[in-house]
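Repro case for the chain-ordering regression, as requested:
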Amino acid sequence: MTPDVGPREAALRVTNLHKAFGSLDVLRGISLAAHEHDVIAVMGASGSGKSTLLRCINLLDIPDAGEVHVGGELIHMCFDRRGQRTAADPRQVDRIRTRLGMVFQRFNLWSHMTVLQNIIEAPIRVLGVPRRRAIEQADQLLRKVGLYDKRDDFPAYLSGGQEQRAAIARALAMEPEVLLLDEPTSALDPELVGEVLKVIDDLAAEGRTMLIVTHEIGFARAVSSRTIFLHQGMVNEQGPSRQVLDEPRSERFRRFLSGGNWGRAALTTPSQTGGNE
Amino acid sequence: MDLTIVWESMPRLLGGTVLTLEITFLSLLAGLCLAVPVAVARLSYRRILWMPAYGYMLYFRGTPLLVQLFLVYYGSGQFQPLLDQAGVWFLFREAYFCALLTLTLNTAAYTAEILRGAISAVPRGEIEAARSLGMSGLLLYRRIILPKAFRLALPAYTNEAIFLLQATSLVSIITLLDLTGVARIIVARSFEPYKLYITVALIYLAITYLVAFAARHAERHLSAHLRERPVEGVAGASGR
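-- result from build under test --
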């Protein structure tokens, strides 16, 4: 390794991110930094830009302005002939994406492949890992998320919780530096939420760097080191999770936490959903 | 009823059937290979790609196959010096080649349209998942989009294959001795159109049945991942 320029380079740094869809400003200047081993919970009412923030980080959506650094490497942007902002080097984007694992709300497993095939696909095809090595690694991950006995099943045979655990294993198979989780439990039946949160909790305990968009307040308090609250495309409040979740300073965040505009939050707050460390 | 004429003609009819099957199979194969890039080009946002694809599909789906056959077979004669210069006249001289070329271009246009729809129907989320793992371009198409699109396209494509099988009967008009062509000659000599054409019809029917049967099996095999889901699915968009 070459010596770092700064004291400690952030695993992920987002600077002044803007994104509008048509006339709707979804992100209005968001900055954040995740250092190694940080687990950052991103909260906010629906429409506050949480998912868009994650999608702009790995360029599934192209931010209108702002910078993203991954492990100190800036994702280069430019403007195409029509004046649309776009990635300057698509290959850099592909490369950066392999370093950012993404877990989607709706899992997005490839339905025509078995669980195992889903997991080994990208390591083999994108990273060039030898097939046998990829399978060994996938089996290890499947044991870790408790799905080894489902490795040869198609996603349609799995429950939502199992699908999401498989999707997490798929993301982990790339050995990403940062894991982006976009409401990983929002599409699940209540009784399936726990098994997925448990897996994420284990990842946090391993020291994985994660950015989690979540509505599970108890889980955020138990697992995340920092919480960021978005409101109307801006960071409304942020700080150490226990501190800001227990004593929110802004009126908005207080209302959000007490279920003012999010019914379920009120139900989740008293009983902690996540396994406490 | 005296079926002697049918029995006597059977070897020649079966010989014609071989040619029919050959032309059908070869143009389906070539057509599919051509349809994939055309469909992908059609879906591109780059004008230089989608506009030619659009024009090609519009022409071959918007004009009668018989006219296309005449254009290639008779029309190419007018460009003989040019084609000679290009060294391909010996191909265009052959009715067999003209038929194959026309049928290929025709079926490719229809197949491209089927594929275009199927590619658009591939769940967006699954494509985004692939992108998020660093897949893009050809790799993304080859491993994720096309395998899913082919599955979605199969029922409509079976239809196209059956249609093409029937459409090959037109090549008898440009002198080829396919199943229909053979029958026409025998009828002209024997004056027994009813018995012969009903035999021909039954042979086409039998082939169609076999194609449909094979397609049903392929479909069941390829959609194994969609059946018997125990929990209400999330990938509903990928269903039929």
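Ordering looks correct now. Residues 230-240 of chain B have pLDDT under 50 and may be disordered.
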